């Protein structure tokens, strides 16, 4: 008697009754560090404490029910993110080029596939002192507080 194959724990079947925005999605990598169906946006709508950085909200901006958001940030040569703190944690994965992170009092060099965990309430800033673009995946809580700028370097 033929046995029905069991589903892998990695398979995510569509759930009947879910809203169209919360169905399984595939964002195709286009090869230029953009994904089909994902907008490239400004890092933030306002503020003068950052430069030459763009973001793409890959998971979390289209009604997904995940408890996390996955974003891609790309920092051009000489660019940097805000020096900020907040109550939520970060996971940063370097996926393009090289860059650095100021985390508390430390400066950490980030290379391809380095992973950085940033504790809640820790001042931090990503920067790109190199000639080539520096890109990172950033994973954060879906429910999170707004960042607070850090005025003086730690």
What tags apply to this protein structure?
single chain; 154 residues; mainly beta; Jelly Rolls; three-stranded antiparallel β-sheet; disordered N terminus
Set down the secondary structure blueprint.
Blueprint lengths: L40 E2 L8 E9 L8 E13 L3 E2 L4 E7 L2 E5 L2 E5 L4 E4 L5 E4 L6 E8 L6 E2 L5
Antiparallel strand pairs: 1-2, 2-3, 3-10, 4-11, 5-8, 5-10, 6-7, 6-9
Helicity level, as a percent range? under 10%
By CATH, the topology of the domain at 52-144 is Jelly Rolls
End-to-end Cα distance, whole Å, is 68 Å
- Overall mean pLDDT: 87
Report on the architecture of this protein.
There is one protein chain. The protein has 154 residues and is mainly beta. The chain has a domain at 52-144: Jelly Rolls (Sandwich), CATH 2.60.120. The chain is built from no helices and 11 strands. The chain has strands at 41-42, 51-59, 68-80, 84-85, 90-96, 99-103, 106-110, 115-118, 124-127, 134-141, 148-149. It has a 6-stranded antiparallel β-sheet with strand order 1-2-3-10-5-8, with no helix packed on it. Strands 7-6-9 form a 3-stranded antiparallel β-sheet, with no helix packed on it. Strands 4-11 form a two-stranded antiparallel sheet. The protein is globular and about 45 Å long. The model is unreliable at 3-19 (pLDDT under 50).
